[in-house]
Sigma-G inhibitor, Gin (Clostridium cellulovorans), 67 residues
Amino acid sequence: MKCIVCGKSIQEGIIVNSRFICLKCEERMVNSNIDTDFYNYFIDVLKKSRINKLDTKGESINCQNRL
Ligand SMILES: [Zn+2]
């Protein structure tokens, strides 16, 4: 699995909103206060992940229109 925060492929970690986060990044999240730069970065990554999902749906709608 590839960590969405640090980008490294690591086996151990957690899944948040169907996104993988490695143990080291998860540990930093847990030890972070809500208003830290790292937390804001984490939320930003999750938002980008949702946008990617919407783009995928848009593509399948276009395919249906072509048919
Ligand atoms: Zn990581």
Q: What stands out?
A: Helices lie at 23-31, 37-66. The radius of gyration is 15 Å.
